[in-house]
Amino acid sequence: MKKVPLTVEGEAALRKELDQLKKVERPRVVEAIAEARAHGDLKENAEYHAAREEQGLMEARIRDLESKLSNAQVIDIAAMAQGDKVIFASTVTIINIDNDETFVYQIVGDDEADIKQQKISYQSPMARALIGKEVGDVVVVKTPSGEVEYEIDEVEYV
Asked: What angle do CA 153, 155, 158 make, to 5 degrees?
């Protein structure tokens, strides 16, 4: 299986979710199943079927998290020498050449991506255009409304 790149924060968040599922949610669902089972006839017991379905979804998520964490390649950007090159986990400030609008993004793994927090997946078109480039470079990003040019203004390794 291929390695899954994660930032230090991303790995910690996945571990926290896994811990919550195993130590809190799993026992709660097992208890709900036992309680529903005590109500009698399982064929027509909606609570039992709902709890079993929840258990199946939760166990699938636990397996997914365990797989991602076992294949994680954690990249600690703070431990790297500062530079001007855009790499995984770096924070990039870019300027739209057409309208001078400024954007700041951190390039992260798929599970960490959240545009509301300015975190974009390393596999996104924007990140692909930026990775490997340096401060002062102009990149062209293909968007649904056409190509947009951005200049890389700043790169931080934090």
From this structure: 145
Number of H helices, E strands in the chain: 4, 7
Q: How far apart are CA 91 and CA 154, in angstroms?
A: 8
pLDDT tens string 27-75: 999 999 998 888 877 777 888 889 999 999 999 999 999 999 999 999 9
DSSP code of residue 158: -
DSSP summary character for residue 82: P
Q: Hey, what amino acid is at 108? A: V
**Where along the chain do the CATH 3.10.50.30 domains lie?**
77-156
Tell me, which fold does domain 77-156 have in CATH? Chitinase A; domain 3 (3.10.50)
Tokens matching residue 89: 């986990």
pTM: predicted TM-score of the whole model, two decimal places: 0.81
CA distance 139 to 149: 6
